[in-house]
Amino acid sequence: MTQLTGRPILEAPGELGARPVLSALLTGIRTALLGLSVVTVPVLGLWVVTPFADDGAAGALRLASALWLLGHGAPVLRGPVGVPLSVAPLGLGLLAVGQLYRAGGRVAARSAGRPGGRGGVRAVWAGYVAVACAVVAQCAGAGEFRARVVADLAVVALVAGAAVAAGARRPGAAPAGVEALARALAGLPERVRPTGGAPVVRVAALAAGAGLLAVGGLVVAVAAVLAAVGGGAGSAVFAGGPAAVAGVLLLTLVLLPNTVLWGAAYALGPGFAVGAGTVVSPVRTTLGPVPEFPLFALLPEPGAGGWRLAVCVLPALAGVVPGLLLGRAAAADGGLPDGGPAAGPVRAGVPWPVAATVVAALASGLLVGGAAAGLGWLAGGALGAGRMAWLGPVPWWTALAAAGWVALVSAPVAVLARSRALRTAAGGPGRSWRSGVPLVPGALAVTARRGALLLRARAYGAVTRLAGAPGVPTAPGAPAVTAPGAPGGPAR
């Protein structure tokens, strides 16, 4: 009996073990139910401890279903007039995507080498979507929150399919987008082509994105400290008792990734909106009435930015690390020609030209800009009708600012890091790494070196003449100078 209860059902040999598609289907259902329980349990717990709750258990379950759909980016309607609500709590979205990614990877590894192994991955997706159908059906009737059946199912299915497919990629496969980036770079002219630079451009873009997220987190942390010290707004929320405080804290936690992205958009310069006709940026802040919520208590006071303009220095610091990575790669490139092995010999150790290094920096900036546009769009949305129809960063302005900051900083840093690496590898300031090719034109280098040696010799001669040292060469026709006491010198 102990052996039977201690073995996982989905791994046990027998009827389920002999049907991998059924096992994968149950994996998808279990993954969806686990994510749904993460939302439902706290909501039901708060409903139990809240005195004089207006809605019953059905209303609490509907709220949990709406939050689960919003976490996938699926919009819902609120109130009897159907006010749109589309601000996705990215904390729940990251949890759902992470679970689907792991589930797809496990099923793909278990089905490797079996006939119809890809059917297991599709079964995981089907199981997850089946639970989504039940959630949408439960949230489709009349109530405070209503699902938009077709749109919500389409969004959940798209998110689940992308996450499962990403997790089921074969081991050792190139990261997503690297092959397309390599083809795009290979189409450039040779003088501006960073040969074999697609992986390092991707890594540099990831480093820049991580730096910008760190900047956003720092901005939010400083704003929280300033609000706590100054006793900002939002204290009325905490007067509703322990249940209200717990609910607000949980909602703040799942919205924390959104807040970090808003902070990054603020540091980049364009800022974000908290309703129509508003802007929150380092240059100027224009606000209207905002909901009573602790995260909105972190907003700066309306008016000119003043000292807050200093926050714009932080994105510049985020572009230093990508520049260093690209500079080191530019000085130590060792890839095949673009045509492959048949096109010619291996060009090991041939550095990228300066123009190619700049192009690599620009490519990493474009990647960061594209990611900033997508994340900015996901972090915003509607909180109601009319004035609250849009909250969050403007995606296109945020993308342009992110791409501009990264390219503007990483390009000169990459060129300087490349030059320094070449000088260090050559063992001196005059020649490049391994190839012995001068970093400056040959005639100019020879002239500069000869002039430096001549200047040093003349300076040495002038110093020794002033000191009266023996054997100092003199100009033609000048009397020889000998030290006192030397043969032929003046007597004491």
Order of helices and strands: HHHEEHHEHHHHHEEEEHHHEHH
Number of helices: 15
Strand content: under 5%
For the residues shown, what is the average pLDDT?
Answer: 78
Low-confidence blocks of residues: 4-18, 334-348, 429-444, 471-492
Distance between termini?
A: 118 Å
Describe it for me?
This protein has 492 residues and is mainly α. Helices cover 57% and strands 4% of the residues. It is built from 15 helices and 8 strands. It has helices at residues 2-6, 20-49, 57-71, 90-110, 117-138, 149-167, 178-186, 198-230, 242-254, 256-268, 313-318, 320-331, 354-379, 395-426, 442-467; strands at 76-78, 83-85, 145-147, 272-274, 279-280, 284-286, 303-304, 391-393. A 3-stranded antiparallel β-sheet has the order 2-1-3, covered by helices on one side. A 3-stranded antiparallel β-sheet has the order 5-6-7, with no helix packed on it. Helix 3 crosses helix 5 (117-138) and helix 8 (198-230) packs antiparallel against helix 12. The longest helix has 33 residues, at 198-230. The N and C termini lie far apart (118 Å). Residues 4-18, 334-348, 429-444 and 471-492 have low confidence and may be disordered.
